[in-house]
Amino acid sequence: MQRRTLLQAMSATVLPAPKLARAAAAPLVEGYKSARCGCGQGWIEHLKPNGFAVKARDVDDPGAYRRKFGIPDDLGSCHTGFVQGYAVAGHVPAADIKRLLAEKPKARGLAVPSMPLGSPGMESPRKDPYDVFLVRADGSTSVYQHYSGK
């Protein structure tokens, strides 16, 4: 009997323990981009290795989705995403999206207007300074993150 108990104890220490919880699923970003502009695909390729699942759609007017999600035209770019109730317009870095999802502010989302060189999807040896704007629920904005371009 002691031998059986000893073998059971030994096998318990050698065999891997069952997984108690599954890893959380990657947040899904629904992306709306123009097929004519490669930077939207570049932004999507930035998101994937940074912990996001992406379902991308080529659409005729990505700006229509930006407006639908409440992001003003002056903050627009050529692609827009939607993740966990937030809009993400333009070349927003994955780190800022993760921060947004962790903080959960009362906001419409984040936006990077235009196409700054050096931002995700606009990789270049040149890195321009740019801001990521938080678009609050009332439509007002504030700088959420500044990138110096260095």
TrEMBL record:
InterPro entries: DUF411 (IPR007332). It comes from the Bacteria. This is DUF411 domain-containing protein.
